[in-house]
C-alpha cells in the first residue's frame, strides 16, 4: 500500500506539497501538481480516509504566541517563523500575550476552535497541564526561547547560562575589576539561567557580593532604575552585564544622565543581539542569540510535526556569540 511519502519521493517533492495537493489547501504550482497527481496515479495511492478527515480540518495556518511584540527580539523571531512557514505554504497568526497567562489561555481556546494546525509558544506561562491539553486535542506545539528543558514537548532555546559566562569573561578581559548584573524577571527561565551563569562566573572573586545583582524587568526603564540602585550601593562598579539588550540600553541612558563615561568608567554588555545595539552611542557589546535561526528552526520542527514526518520531541539548544563593540572597548587597566 503506497504512502504519502512514496508519492512525495516519486514526484520529487515534500510530503507537505503532496498534502496540499490532496487537501487543496495552500499554493502549489501547476507543474508540481501534475507531477504529484501522476505519482498518485502510478502508485494507486489512496489517502488514508481518517488522516484525510483530520487533515481536511487543516487550515494551513500556525500560530505564534509571543510575550512582548514591542521587544525587537520577538519581532525578529516572529519574522523568521513567518519566512519558514511561508516556504511550506503555511500562514502565521501572531498573538501577543503581554506575559499574561490569562490572555494566553484565551488565545489557546480561540486557536483550538479555528482548527489551527500547530502553535509555537515563545511566552513563559505554558504549564504541564497546557502541554497535556494540546496533546489531547492533537495540536502539535513547539516551545521557543523561554523553555525549561524538562517540558514534554519540542523545544528550541539558546545557551543562556553559557552566554552569561561569556559576557562576564569578556568584561574581565577588558580590565573590569568589579562586575554587576542587572537580571530579568526570575519567573522567566532565560533570566534565571543568565543570573546563574553570572553567579557561576563571579562567585570566586573576593569583590563579589549578592548586592551586585540588581533586579530589572527586561525593559528599558528597568535597566535605568537598576543602575541608580546599583551605584547607590556600589559606586566603584566598573562593569555591568545586563540580562537583555533593552535593559543594557536603559543602563547606557542612566549612566549618560549621571555623567558617567562608557566604557572608560563603566563598561556595559547586553544579551540578545537586537539591532538597537548597533545604533546606540557607544555601540553596545552584546551576547547575540541566533534569533532568526531559533525562529526558523521552531517553525521547521512544528511543520514536520504537523505533516507527521517527525514523531519524537526535539530539544535544540543553540550557541550564542559575543559581539564586542565600543561599550566595552577600554584601554586595558595597567
Ligand atoms: O529581551 C527579551 C528576553 O526575553 C530575551 O533575552 C529572550 O531570551 C526572552 O527570554
Automatic annotation (TrEMBL):
Keywords: DNA-binding, Transcription, Transcription regulation
Ranges of residues in domain HTH lacI-type: 2-56
CDD domains linked to this entry: HTH_LacI, PBP1_LacI_sugar_binding-like
Record InterPro entries: HTH_LacI, Lambda_DNA-bd_dom_sf, Peripla_BP/Lac1_sug-bd_dom, Peripla_BP_I
Molecular function as annotated in GO: DNA-binding transcription factor activity; transcription cis-regulatory region binding
SUPFAM superfamilies named in the record: lambda repressor-like DNA-binding domains (SSF47413), Periplasmic binding protein-like I (SSF53822)
Residue stretches in coiled coil: none
Protein name in the entry: Catabolite control protein A
Species assigned in the record: Effusibacillus lacus
Source lineage: Bacteria, Bacillati, Bacillota, Bacilli, Bacillales
Amino acid at each position: 500500500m503506497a504512502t504519502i511519502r512514496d508519492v512525495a519521493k516519486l514526484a520529487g517533492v515534500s510530503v507537505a506539497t503532496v498534502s496540499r495537493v490532496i487537501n487543496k489547501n495552500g499554493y502549489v504550482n501547476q507543474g508540481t501538481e501534475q507531477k504529484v497527481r501522476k505519482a498518485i496515479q502510478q502508485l494507486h495511492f489512496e489517502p488514508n480516509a481518517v488522516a484525510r478527515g483530520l487533515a481536511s480540518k487543516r487550515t494551513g495556518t500556525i500560530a505564534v504566541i509571543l510575550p512582548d511584540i514591542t521587544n525587537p527580539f520577538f519581532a525578529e523571531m516572529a519574522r523568521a517563523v513567518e519566512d519558514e512557514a511561508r516556504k511550506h505554504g503555511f500562514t502565521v497568526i501572531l498573538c501577543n500575550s503581554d506575559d499574561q497567562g490569562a490572555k494566553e489561555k484565551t488565545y489557546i481556546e480561540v486557536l483550538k476552535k479555528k482548527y489551527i494546525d500547530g502553535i509555537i509558544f515563545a511566552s513563559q506561562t505554558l504549564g504541564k497541564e497546557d502541554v497535556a491539553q494540546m496533546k489531547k486535542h492533537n495540536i502539535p506545539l513547539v516551545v521557543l526561547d523561554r523553555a525549561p528543558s524538562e517540558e514534554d514537548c519540542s523545544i528550541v532555546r539558546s545557551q543562556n547560562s553559557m552566554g552569561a559566562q561569556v559576557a562576564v569573561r569578556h568584561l574581565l578581559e577588558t580590565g573590569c575589576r568589579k562586575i554587576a548584573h542587572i537580571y530579568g524577571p526570575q519567573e522567566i527561565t532565560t533570566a534565571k539561567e543568565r543570573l546563574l551563569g553570572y553567579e557561576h562566573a563571579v562567585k570566586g572573586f573576593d569583590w563579589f557580593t549578592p548586592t551586585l545583582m540588581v533586579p530589572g524587568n527586561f525593559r528599558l526603564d528597568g535597566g535605568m532604575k537598576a543602575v541608580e540602585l546599583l551605584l547607590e550601593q556600589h559606586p566603584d562598579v566598573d562593569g555591568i552585564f545586563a540580562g537583555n539588550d533593552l535593559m543594557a540600553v536603559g543602563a547606557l541612558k542612566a549612566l549618560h544622565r549621571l555623567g558617567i563615561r562608557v566604557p572608560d568608567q563603566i563598561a556595559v554588555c547586553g544579551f540578545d543581539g537586537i539591532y538597537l545595539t548597533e545604533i546606540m552611542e557607544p555601540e553596545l557589546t552584546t551576547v547575540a542569540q541566533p534569533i532568526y535561526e531559533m525562529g526558523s528552526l521552531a517553525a521547521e520542527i512544528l511543520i514536520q510535526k504537523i505533516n507527521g514526518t517527525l514523531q519524537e520531541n526535539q530539544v535544540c539548544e543553540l550557541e550564542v556569540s559575543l559581539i564586542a563593540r565600543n561599550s566595552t572597548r577600554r584601554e586595558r587597566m595597567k
